[in-house]
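User: Hey, my collaborator sent me this sequence without any context and asked if I could get a structure. I don't really work with proteins. Can you help?
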Amino acid sequence: MIQPSTLKFLKDLKFNNNKSWFDANRKAYEAAREDFAAFIDRLITAFGKTEPTVLHLKARDCMFRINRDVRFSKNKEPYKTNFGAYINPEGKKSVKGGYYLHLEPGGSFTGGGIWQPMPAELAKVRQEIDYNLQEFEKVLGTKKFRDTYGGLTVEEGQILSRVPKGYEPDNPAAAYLKYKSYTALTNLPDAILTSPTLLTTTVKAFQTLQPLITFLNRAIDE
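Assistant: No problem. I've predicted the 3D structure and written it out in structure-token form, which is a compact way to encode the shape of the chain:
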């Protein structure tokens, strides 16, 4: 579970997103970050019973900085209003699929996959789907997956209007080949964030996602 004080810090930051306020509340930030890190360490240990390849990771290997990169953004607010952690055996910068937890009051979610892969990796995933469509649809069609995620994430700007070059429009896998990212996400209501059930809920969500991650990473490895 996450401490209420951590959520309060993130809420307050949303309405005071400037350096002077942040500096004045740095101790609150450090306590909130430590709280989130402690949860991520527990999550790695718990999920590691199913996915032992993540057991060597520590929270610091998975968590993202709170500072925003504002160089190419119209939004010049200096800080993110969330904590995020990407659990991937090969690290946060791996080209392979992994598992993600996003903590933000009113907008928390968990899940994972491959988001905006480079062209080489994207081509491999599309080819794997084309070659093994029945297996891919079976992964997405299980009751657990549908109940948890509904389906692949439909994100604005992440789906082509036409099938990519090299594939026919009537390809049976056309709907999936148009995706630029292959992720699945499920929302976490605020009430569960401070509940002891947060850990088991997140672990179960990751376990449900494992077959998709295995499929995507097999494509990249090949």
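In plain terms: The chain has one domain: 4-221. You can pass these tokens on to your collaborator as they are.
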